[in-house]
Amino acid sequence: MPEGDTVWQAARRLHDALAGHVLTRSDLRVPRFATADLTGRTVLDVTPRGKHLLTRIEGGLTLHSHLRMDGSWKVYANGQRWSGGPGHQIRAILGTTHRTAVGYRLPVLELLRTSDEDRAVGHLGPDLLGPDWDPDRALANVLKDPARELGEALLDQRNLAGIGNVYKSELCFLLGVTPWLPAGELPADRAAKLPALAKKLLEVNRERPVRVTTGLRGQDLFVYGRARRPCLRCRTPIRVADQGDGSRERPTYWCPVCQPGPAPAPTRRTSRGPTN
Question: Which residues belong to any copy of the Formamidopyrimidine-DNA glycosylase catalytic domain (predicted)?
């Protein structure tokens, strides 16, 4: 699943293509909004909110979308061949005289009044890449359930918005703790670093086509997707195991030496798992 930096990039592409332009084509291919016609309206802006996209349109309307695991927005010059997938996977088309944005495999697509946006995103915690970022509130949210595993607390978008499975694993590595550590047991000095470090990871990657957390050439990530490969710090083989609340398990990577603490038995997984 795209994480906050990837969604930020998608919002910028859509904003650059659509904002300030009148829609000449509008096609929402979901039953509830199939008859909605946005042609003739100007796109005002496209704003990311955590992992959500808010396309605001003249007349007090917002098209809310969420990419989840497989969704994507592609932007094409008019006359350019669309290549984001077969036609039956298209859920939305927004076109102007110069560009067309096509939404593929969007599991969440709804048209709502801009004044009602909180109904879609009001539950989210402080956005790591947003103007509402509040590090103290974000940390308090993560620590409010001291028995909850840190990795699960970081993924909970109600605590802070934008972290997915990749950044969860990488952030825990940089903090030197396992994702299974109860949040309340996170040492105070490391807890104090958590908000700024999380924000830095997303900020430095929001302009990059390839996500990098290490600063090392040829080695993009410390642990995620590196099962059984040597740790970049201590050379111990990286481990992987599933972590989840029972409703969904996510592949989680860690170094047993650099990240001492509670952890399950590793699973036999060698390829990158789905991100969240």
Answer: 2-79
* Catalytic residue flag (residue 250): yes
- The verdict on whether 31 is a catalytic residue reads no
Phi/psi-derived region of residue 141, left when phi > 0, alpha when psi is between -120 and 50, beta in every other case:
alpha
d(CA 152, CA 168): 9
Q: Which pLDDT value is given to residue 196?
A: 97
Question: Given 148, 206, 239, 250, which residue is catalytic?
Answer: 250
Catalytic residue among 3, 149, 152, 170: 3
Please choose, from the candidates 20, 129, 23, 109, the residue with its C-alpha nearest in 3D space to the C-alpha of residue 65. Answer: 109
Q: Which residue in the list 2, 126, 195, 251 is annotated as catalytic?
A: 2
Strand partners, 75: 101
C-beta of residue 57 within 8 angstroms of C-beta of residue 43? yes
User: Each residue of 56-84: pLDDT tens digit?
Assistant: 999 999 999 999 888 999 999 999 999 99
Q: Is 152 a catalytic residue?
A: no
> Is 2 in the active site?
yes
Q: Model's pTM, two decimal places? A: 0.90
Backbone angles phi, psi at 156, to 5 degrees: -70, 110
Instruction: For residue range 217-229, list pLDDT tens digits in order.
Output: 889 999 999 999 9
